[in-house]
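ok so I'm stuck.
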Amino acid sequence: MKKSIQLLSLLSLIILALVIAGCQGQIIPTVDDGVSADIPTSDSEKPSMVLDDPSTVTAEVQNTDEPSNAVESITETVNSAQISIVEMSSSGFSPKEITIKSGDTVKFTNVGTQQYWPASAMHPSHTVYPGSSISKCNTAEADNIFDACRAYGPGETYSFKFNEIGSWKYHDHRNPSAFGTIIVE
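replied:
not stuck anymore, here's the structure
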């Protein structure tokens, strides 16, 4: 009986410590299946997602007191190529500027409630990224141009692999005042 009371007291202290740590944003969950998540306590830390191999996932997420749909940067590593995520919403693109390596992919994810159409600058021709042009949409060349060639609804994604080194401006074809920059090194 005495051992049960001691065990119950110890368990209560552990739970109390976890609750206190959770209130301070310091809980770092870890699961033995190889999946872990680190929750940073500073707004200056950038969220990122890195997939080193299909069986291991490590994720960091921004922890703020105020709700926000904005994500500074999310990247995934798949077979040594990076996938950076840019969110599209009524606030525009987030992040507005990212730096990637040649051969990396940018995945534009619609987290809003409207439709968005990411494409290379300049509106309406979409010709700034080499080889791109809105005139190539709905042709055999459509998969090779930086142009979604259509509006993407809530929850949908458009991905493009950047092979050309440079600073590439882009915009939302449906709302040309929403724009961003992808720097390819």
